[in-house]
Amino acid sequence: MANAAPPPPNGEEWLQTMMDMQATSSNVITSWASAKAGRDGALKAEEWLQMMINLQDDRIRTNNVTWYNSVISAWASAEAGIEGAWKAEEWLQYMIDLQDDRTNPTDVTYNSVINAWASAKAGIEGALKAEEWLQYTIDL
User: Fold this and answer.
1) How confident is the model at residue 9 (pLDDT cuts 50, 70, 90)?
2) Fewest beta carbons within 10 Å, which of 16, 96, 129, 139?
3) pTM of the model
């Protein structure tokens, strides 16, 4: 007899699979973000976050502020200069635009973006962007 295909998962099995994937992906995102692998590490963390965003559906929401903060922190510490600061800011803006309680930016988020601009070696532009985000947080 030929190998039969496994039966399709029931609802509980599907949910458990998604929860396991969510936990594993969270660990991978955080690991890449904290690996001190520079631009490559930030890109890998971003790639995993983007994959989780693409996997979302209405049955299970995977948005998690920690994932976004990890990617932003990875870009802020990637020593990628202006590119890293812009990437960190783009992810912060994405979080703001989501208007989702699970992904509302935190003090950690804003501080990471401010630090990214302050350390971007972007001269006046970096200083102005850091000041702009600081003022934004004050005005919240």
Assistant:
1) low
2) 139
3) 0.77
